[in-house]
Every structure is written in C-alpha cells, then in structure tokens.
C-alpha cells in the first residue's frame, strides 16, 4: 500500500515541469535524483511569465513499511523541509499533510507523469505541478 511508485509516473531521464491553475503550461524541466519505494527527490527549474526559480520536491516515507496505509514522512517543497509530515493512502492518491502547506498535498499518477495537487508555490495562480516525460 505505502510505497511511492504507484503514485509516481516515470522517474528516469529528463522530465518536463508543468504548472497549472490560472496558467496551464510547460514551464521548465529537471530530473529525479532519487526514486525508490520509500523516497523520491526531484530538482528542476521553471521560467514562465517573468517568474523564474528552482523546483525541488522530495518525499520520504519514514516508516519504510510497504503495508502501512499511513505514517510519518518528510517532505521538501521548494527549499523548505518538514520532517514531521504525515502521509495517508486514499485510493489512487497519497495525501501528505505538512506544516509547509495550508492544504494537504495530493500525489498521484496523471497523464503519464507525477501530479502534485495543491502545493503552495511562489508562482502566479499555481494550483499544482505535473512532472513527466
């Protein structure tokens, strides 16, 4: 139940980054620097409408228990890290509750890539990020 791979798209090779919300466009690229059952890390860059920066997303399931439906995790969004976050599997989504974000972040496989819904990002109108080939 609680491994990352069912919720992520491909993790090898160069990836594109899309932001959506008020905008819905390809904005940059990057790559997964780590992708295992219990830890995934992505780094990349975006450049859109005068907004430029780096995208850093990382998640580690600290309990390393593939049969657990929920448990402790750490999450990094941009350059901020929360080592006291919690994850829960809810159907085809992994939902992460963190002090870094006002809303829980939903992570799931979508359109051939990894979807991260509702992260707080310093980008105009952004409601989510999709990472994929």
Task: Give an overview in words.
The protein has one domain. It has a 10-stranded antiparallel barrel with strand order 1-2-3-4-5-6-7-8-9-10. Helix content is 0%, strand content 62%. The chain has 133 residues and is mainly β.
Give a topology summary.
Blueprint (H helix, E strand, L loop, with lengths): L14 E7 L2 E12 L3 E10 L2 E11 L8 E8 L2 E11 L2 E5 L7 E6 L2 E5 L8 E7 L1
Task: Please summarize what this structure is.
The protein is mostly beta strands and 133 residues long. The protein has strands spanning 15-21, 24-35, 39-48, 51-61, 70-77, 80-90, 93-97, 105-110, 113-117, 126-132. The chain has one domain (5-122).
Radius of gyration over alpha carbons? 14 Å
Overall body shape: globular
Relative strand content: over 45%
The number of strands is: 10
- In DSSP terms (H or I, runs of 4 or more residues), the helix count works out at 0
User: The biggest beta sheet, please?
Assistant: 10 strands, antiparallel, barrel
Helix amount, in percent? Answer: under 10%
Structural class of the secondary elements?
Answer: mainly beta
Which descriptors would you attach to this protein?
single chain; 133 residues; mainly beta
């Amino acid at each position: 139940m609680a491994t990352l791979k069912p919720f992520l798209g491909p993790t090898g090779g160069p990836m594109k980054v899309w932001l959506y919300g008020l905008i819905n466009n390809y904005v940059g690229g990057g790559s997964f620097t780590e992708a295992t059952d219990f830890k995934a890390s992505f780094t990349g860059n975006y450049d859109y409408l005068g907004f430029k920066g780096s995208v850093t997303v990382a998640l580690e399931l600290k309990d390393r228990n593939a049969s657990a439906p929920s448990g402790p995790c750490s999450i990094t969004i941009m350059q901020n890290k929360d080592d006291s976050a919690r994850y829960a599997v809810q159907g085809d989504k992994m939902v992460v509750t963190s002090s870094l974000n006002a809303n829980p972040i939903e992570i799931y496989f979508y359109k051939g890539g990894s979807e991260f819904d509702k992260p707080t990002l310093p980008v105009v109108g952004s409601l989510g990020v999709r990472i994929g080939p």
